[in-house]
Structure prediction request, 159 residues.
Amino acid sequence: MTMAVGGIGASAAGATTSASGGLASLTANEFLNLLVTELQNQNPLSPMDPSQMVSQTSSLSEVELLSTIQSALTQMASSQGILSASSLIGQSVTYQDGSGEVAGQVSGVGQSANGVVLDVGGQSVPIANVIAVGMVPSGASATGSTQTGSTTSTTGSVG
Prediction:
């Protein structure tokens, strides 16, 4: 008599994946409840090693601290990006869009799901799309104009 057992390996792998994903997402309260339950149901002839319990609780503290640090660093990076981009307000930028290179004056900065964006002529332009930065001549408005040709810069020396 022959039996097919092909599906067993796949279901076992799926169970392992969901179990490890579930343990990684435990909150502090869930972890402590699990630890208390483990202590209540331990074998009296073979109790949990105290050093193992301390190790588990210190691991929880480390994970919580790393999570807090990660959140703070993410907020700092976002703030730093906006602060850096704010120096572009009032300046002319050339950026890539679907139709080619476009130049315009930056009137504001903001944050989107994809990162820092500049407000250029009413358009939200991701800062990663900016290819050149320069001052807008007084009295001129380059917003929305198409940039063609090349840009030349000169450097003077003080003697």
Q: What stands out?
A: Residues 85-146 form one domain.
